[in-house]
Every structure is written in structure tokens, then in C-alpha cells.
Amino acid sequence: MTTAHPAPAPAKDGPKASDPIAELAAAHDLTLSGARPSLPQYIAQLWGRRHFVTAYATARMHAQYSEASLGQVWHLVTPLLNAAVYYFIFGIVMHASHGVPDYLPFLITGVFVWDFIGSSINASTRAVQGNLGLVRALHFPRASLPLSTVVQLFQQLLVTMGALIILLFVFGQTPTLNWLFVFPTLLLMAAFCAGCAMIMARIGAKHPDISQLMPFVLRTWMYASGVMWSIDSMLKTDHLPHWVSMALKLNPAAVYIDLMRFALIGSYKASQLPHHVWLIALGWALLAGVGGFIFFWKAEEEYGRG
After folding, report:
1. Rounded mean pLDDT, 54-69
2. Rounded distance, CA 181 to CA 186, Å?
3. Interatomic CA distance for residues 34 and 36, integer angstroms
4. What φ, ψ does residue 218 adopt, rounded to 5°?
5. pLDDT per residue as tens digits for the range 89-108
6. Cα angle, residue 54 at apex, residues 252 and 37 outer, rounded to 5°
7. Residue 306 CA from chain centroid, whole number
8. Which of 122, 198, 216, 275 has the fewest CB atoms within 10 Å, measured from its CB?
9. Where are the domains of the chain?
10. Smallest Cα–Cα separation from 109: which of 178, 49, 62?
């Protein structure tokens, strides 16, 4: 009669069996599908898709009002109608125009600039979630989606800026060298909005309900940005807590609106604008642009899952 011996327990510290599939993938330089590339590689991939970003943005811009009778004219009509409503409520009924020189140019400039900032942030909350079919079907840097949203709205802004210039002529404004400050202001504002768009696109991809909340957040932000009233005039008359005054002065939307007003409106001399305002504008553009890009890139593997 033989005695049965128990099977030897597997060695806990011995070498693990190699995975032949993993070895085969490594031998042929294959990587995980959808894996996040390094930051330099991601930037290179995104630069390689730059033509897709602009083409996709242009196609969306032309398709936006394709079923409307006025078509692309709505790009101009919408901010003008907003300006008319705000002028009636704030300029006439609430007398916000008192003490504000050139109130109509002041108002329409603020409305046009805010329309770009608010629309960029609001639309970007659905940039990934609204394109899940594209995200799941094709491999490309997902940052293309929020960036194409900003490019689309920036193209619309350039069109509306032409209308803004005409309106400024109508209200008695004449071109000066200060108008050249429009170009760095647009550049800084676009970088800021691109960064914010990528932040909101990542949040919106994980929490789709944020798109329902953003209109209320943006409406509050608009009122705090001096679109319809002068922040400086209010700070001179109202004794607000210091932190509230600082928050209003450092508000990025208010900073970019002020830079545009000082560039385009004759009664707001660019030479009177404190130099630190440009530093604040640059700081917001770098903080949002660089920080937002890295924030979005870190979740590159997560988009389209679930």
C-alpha cells in the first residue's frame, strides 16, 4: 500500500509565469489601445490634427444655423439682441449708464466679449460627452474636441468683431493706435478660454449633469464681470469687503472685457490702464491654458469608457 503525498505548494517567491501575449506585443512594439501618451507626444499628435480641429470647427459653425431662415446672420443678431435687452433693463430702467461715458459702446463691447467667453465654457461641457460615437470609433487626441469648440466660437467672434467695429463707428468712435491692443487681447482671451474649455470638457465627460448647471453659474459670473455696469464706478460708491473688491478686480472675464474697452473706446484711454492689468491677463491665460491642457491630458485614457 502506497502512501499518497500531497502535491507541493506553489512557491510564493518564485518567478511568475511569463505571459506569451504580452511578450509578443512587446516584441512587435504594440501598446495598449487608448493608452495615454507622454505629454510631448500628446502635443505632437494634437499638432498633427490641427487641420482636423479647424475643419471640424468650421463645419460645425456652418451647420449651427443651417435650418434657420437667416442662417449665419444669427451669429451677429444674437449678441445685438442681448445688448438691446441689457440696454433697456440696465441702461434705462436701472440707470446703470449714469457716470459711464459712451455707455452704448461700453455695453456692446462687453456683450460681444462675454458672449465668446461664456459660450466657450458652456459648450465645452458637452465637447466629449456629445461626441461619444466619434470618441469610441476613432483614435485621436481627445483635446481636439474642446479645442475645436473654442476655434468655432473664435471664428464667430472674428465675424462679430467686424459688426462691433461698424457699431463703434456709428456711435462716434474713430480708429486710433490703441485699436492695435485688440490683437493681444484676443490672443490672451482665446488661450484662457481654451484652457477653461478643456477643464470643463473633462468634468463634463465624467459628470454630464454639469451642462445643466453651467448656465446658472455663467449668468452669475456675467453679472460679476461688469458687462452691463462699471465695476470701477461701483467700487467708488459702494463700501464692499476688501476680498469682494479684489475678486471683482481679478475676475478674468472682467479683465479681458476691460482690455477690449480700453482698446476700442476713445473715452477709455489705454495709457490710463494700469500695467498690472496686462500681467493679470497674461497670468490667467497661462494658468488656464497650461493647467487646463495638463488637466485634460491626465484623463485621456478615461474618455469614452462606460
Report:
1. 76
2. 9
3. 6
4. -70, -35
5. 887 887 777 878 888 899 99
6. 80
7. 26
8. 275
9. 37-302
10. 178
